[in-house]
Amino acid sequence: MSSKSMDRWLPCQGYCEMAGSANFFLSLDRCVVLVHGPRWCSSIAAAEMAGIEKKYEKQFYCSEVKQQNLVFGAADELIDALHEIENEQHPSLIALLTSCSMSLIGDDLEGICRSADISCPVLTLDSGGLRGQFMMGYEKGLIRFLEDLPFAPVEKEPGTVNIIGWSTAYPLWEGNLREIRRLLSLIGIQVNVVLGEDGLSLEKAAELKKASLNLVLYPELGEKAARWLEENRGMDYADLPLPYGLQGTRKWLGKVADLLGMIPDFSGIDREMGRRQEQIDLAVIRMKWNNRILQFGDIYACLTKGMAESLIPTLRKEFPDPGVIHLRIEEPGEVHTEGTVPWEPFEPVNVPKGELALVLGNSNTRNEAANFGRIIYRNFLMPQVSLGVPEKCYAGMKGWQIFMSDIIADVYTLAYMNRKE
Q: Measuring CA to CA, which residue among 106, 147, 165, 132 is closest to residue 18?
């Protein structure tokens, strides 16, 4: 196996398994995360979470174990940290996560927590980041939460869905969720619980069984949890990755309706699709009329499997004149997406004169692609460095028009920069 293929397993690269678990728990209302480990390890994850949502910084604690604790244990430090959290935060839940070093020691965390006599529930999770990535940790945290969740005795409501596996660490999470809710409501489908949405209360999460169907929009985050709910709570689920594009979204909505046994009125959706398509077509035609405009070339995408399953077909069908699509899947395991060319890590992007390349991924992807004067970049993965706008989205029908508007604006900018060629 090449050294490149092993890079993802190196420790402390950021967004590790512990950070993934922390991200899910921090999204819960009045939940506090306690990292059982050294300060330096906790600081990395805390800084990443604060970059996602500033308020998460105040929900993040560390037991601050020292070198001697790696030999003799850190029960006293852990108990002190639990009492500090209880006195300062009065939380609804404490998620106790172990760092890599403390995972090796094997302290009896549940026994220590019982002896601390904390008034709120304390949920323990071995989340040592040496084993995997953010997505693995998120999955583990979500399933661990469901295992202890006291499900409320509620009646199932027709035409209602849960979304399993959402993340505030993903770009445009808030705007994308608003767009999904809006589109579903237009055809009479209501969203009940979104596991991973910021501010979700424990009481609302307990009403999961009110929904008729669990939707997994990010399989890398929610598929295992949805399967757990099916096996242990008898809840049906469907993997339907987050929709992109006008036609892609219309098709996605039809699938959701079919799974719920509904025959909704799509006339409003179809009118909106036609109106947005007309506006996009006009902008693309005007762009092509201007002979100074550079042509679109190849597309380089670094995505999760779920994103690729939805976004790649949309790029082929709805993006203007796409070239070859180069794809790298950002999660463990072998994944083949038909019609794409593998893109190896740190492979430079060679953009022919007179063309532009489209790069989709994260800030690391942008940097490795280089060739800044001929690349249009959009963020689809964390980490990201940007000022978030809650209303902005790339998913759904509204999102596709925003995406195309951003791309076209960048084309004009780069055309101006390259006007002497």
A: 132
